[in-house]
Automatic annotation (TrEMBL), chains A, B:
Residues 9-325 form the FAD/NAD(P)-binding domain. The lineage of its organism: Bacteria, Pseudomonadati, Pseudomonadota, Betaproteobacteria, Burkholderiales. Belongs to the NADH dehydrogenase family. This is NADH:ubiquinone reductase (non-electrogenic). It comes from Caenimonas terrae. Residues 363-418 form the External alternative NADH-ubiquinone oxidoreductase-like C-terminal domain. InterPro entries: FAD/NAD-bd_sf (IPR036188), FAD/NAD-binding_dom (IPR023753), NDH-2 (IPR045024), NDH2-like_C (IPR054585). Its EC number is 1.6.5.9. The chain crosses the membrane at residues 386-404. One of its GO terms (molecular function) is oxidoreductase activity. Pfam families: NDH2_C (PF22366), Pyr_redox_2 (PF07992).
Length: 442, 442
């Protein structure tokens, strides 16, 4: 009687960029993959701010995971949230109690918001990581204008028409620039008692410049473009308190208060709680953001059967010719890590030595708003830095190119084309009009 | 010193079809209109089932109200929910405390679900009236397949793969037919442990036929098309109990239980609670569904300054040559009532006699699913009844024609074209995977 040899069981947690690429990379392998995702979709996060600002509908940037992998027979997609990683038993426990055993595990669970120890700010200043976040931010933005239209008290009206974005990274810059677009263009002529163009948009950044991952001159260009769009950028400004009516800021010249009923958090990320699980189970160290420190080949020390990729990993890039460099928490890095982790699993299965991870940095791009972006491009042809209208076009096409799915690309292209010409935004849906109540002042 | 004469204040409650058309009809009038809507959008309800079945995104069928009326200077749009109608004082109170005075009032607040006295069924069997309803139904449909994929117990799996739609009107028929499409086509090949095509789709109807507003032969045609699509239609079947695991049905041959984890309610509507407000304030009678009985010119007896239109009104259609006929609760009727009520306000302002409302019935149409629909068309050229593929094309183009907004029309046309060719549905987004817990059996 022949014994049936079970194929190696690979479990991949998370279908963000890291998990997606790892799963794809294993498509021809004689393995059984279980892909676990706690929403039913892969989210194209770079465009999430567009859903948050009512410029795109959610389905344009969210692809159902099991649809993406329908033609890959060695993948079983399951919808569920991992709550426990049992390292010794080599199994995961889901929230509904289901146990999933593995021979090899890739944890690509990503990151969430960090409020720097002030978790009480979370309901007051939503961040932008998931579609639910985007819906909530969208709701608050649209409601703020609606409430201003109804309120005859000038001070309260001003607070409704003051929008504060905390954090000068790409997400914050994109949100602030788009808020300015909404106030100055999209809502033009639609109100009778307020002038939406009179809205104040503030971008608060703790360090000395915005877009810290970019070269200094592009940071400066971004500030110029933001200012031209009508955003007030305040660097060297730290938020010390947030309540339902506004926030307290510590700036260069002292402390002051901003009355603002719509505050958006784009200032800090923290790794998924699964990082702490892995640290407990394997002894792997965590960095300050809770990310798991991985070996050069992305596995955990002493546990070659577990790899961590994407925003959950604190990884280094190894190449001849330079010292190991930290890998940034950006989408291209997550994708490359996913591919490397998958390739290394196959190498282990074949008894071959694993590869050290090498991050190929193609550069950085961030949009600021209508006709404005900054691009820092690293290519075999050289290093290009540009900004303004041409950078904005480049940004548009790059994002459409990287979107998953032909139909999504067509939809987004059409949405943007029509939005550009008409200065309109087409996903302005609010279903719940209960306004966030102002919290009692501490 | 000249005294400023204030223009007549017209307040319109609700921006469904009735409120929308009434507001439009007053666009050239020297009046000040306040349009109150408790969401920020006008909803194209005939296509709401498409959002519920993940075929269209919400923004495709929802147009922001203040955007629709930006070019009508005599309209001020306010987002708010009316909680009290103070008839003697001629003012409305909103949920946030704002008071809005009126000289003339059109209440177009529509209808909600009726569970025939069993409000406890509401969380177990969601209905389909608002976008939030559609999101919830979509969530439960997609989750049901996901849970079935994870559950190895055959009985529980069967319950997850049994979908029950209660109510054989157009909404129920459309939902059931589309559920069959999802199970047989959309999800094909996407699961590894279940065969989604094995899902059971049940349509439960209390009376002897579906689509009661249609001629008998078209009802029969609809049942045939549903059956061909794989829906099991059970007429003469009344629901007697719903719990989280399934429902009890009283049929011709006795009582029996259906184990079904996804139950959708499409069986009854009840008028908005504002109907009861008006009855209390004016003495106007309500019918069994809570709709307000109106005079031939759509105003309330003894209160010519108040009109009620749309699903909230129990109105009669008056024309020479036939007795007054009840006006059905359909979109074209709401639109016509809105226009008539607005015209009558202008007549009253001009001291002219008002018009009796006359409903022009152009017929009825209902889609069943892919390539299948029934159309009952009344036109000056004659009365046409047809079904099948051609009826389905007609249905598609009629709905696109009546959609508000060119861009929405283009989006929906594209979505449907690509969905048809690929048999895919593109709005399959689930963000909250908490499954509705089975309720304890009573």
């Amino acid at each position: 009687m022949q014994s049936t040899i079970q194929r190696p069981r690979i479990v991949i947690v998370g279908c963000g960029f890291g998990g997606l690429e790892a799963t794809r990379a294993l498509r021809h392998a004689a393995v059984d993959i279980t892909l676990l995702e706690r929403t039913n979709h892969h989210l194209f996060q770079p465009l999430l701010y567009q859903v948050a600002t009512a410029g795109l509908s959610a389905p344009a940037i969210a692809a159902p995971v099991r649809h993406l992998f329908r033609k890959q027979p060695n993948v079983t997609t399951l919808l569920g949230e991992v709550v426990t990683i049992e390292v010794a038993a080599r199994q995961l426990l889901l929230a509904d109690g289901l146990a999933i055993g593995y021979d090899h595990l890739i944890v690509a669970a990503g990151a969430t918001h960090s409020y720097f120890g002030h978790d009480e700010w979370a309901p007051l200043a939503p961040g932008l990581k998931t579609l639910d976040d985007a819906f909530e931010i969208r709701r608050r933005i649209l409601l703020a204008f609606e409430e201003a239209e109804k309120d005859s008290d000038p001070a309260r009206r001003d607070a409704w028409l003051t929008f504060t974005v905390i954090g000068g990274g790409p997400t914050g810059v994109e949100m602030a620039g788009t808020l300015a677009e909404i106030a100055r263009h999209t809502l033009s002529g639609e109100f009778r008692r307020i002038d939406p163009a009179s809205a104040k948009i503030l971008l608060i950044e703790g360090s000395a410049r915005v877009l810290q991952a970019m070269p200094q001159d592009l940071s400066q260009r971004a500030i110029e473009q933001l200012t031209k769009l009508g955003v007030e950028v305040r660097v060297d400004s730290r938020v010390t308190a947030i309540d339902g009516d506004g926030l307290e800021v510590q700036g260069a010249s002292g402390s002051y208060r901003i009355a603002s009923r719509c505050v958006i958090w784009a200032a800090g990320v923290a790794a998924s709680p699964l990082g702490a699980q892995l640290a407990r189970g394997t002894g792997a160290p965590l960095d300050r953001a809770g990310r798991v420190q991985v070996e050069p080949d992305l596995s955990l020390a002493g546990h070659p059967e577990i790899s961590v990729v994407g925003d959950l990993a604190a990884a280094m890039s190894h190449a001849d010719g330079h010292d190991p460099r930290p890998v940034p928490g950006v989408s291209p890095a997550a994708k490359q890590m996913g591919r490397t982790a998958a390739a290394n699993i196959l190498r282990r299965l074949a008894g071959q030595p694993t590869l050290k991870f090498r991050y190929r940095d193609y550069g950085n791009l961030a949009t600021i708003g209508r006709n404005a972006a900054v691009v820092d491009l690293v290519s075999p042809l050289g290093h290009f830095k540009f900004s303004g209208y041409f950078a904005w076009l480049f940004w548009l096409f790059a994002h459409i190119y990287f979107l998953i799915g032909f139909r999504n690309r067509l939809v987004v292209l059409m949405d943007w084309a029509s939005a550009y010409w008409s200065k309109q935004r087409y996903a302005r849906v609010v279903t719940d009009i209960e306004v966030p109540a102002p919290a009692p002042r501490p």
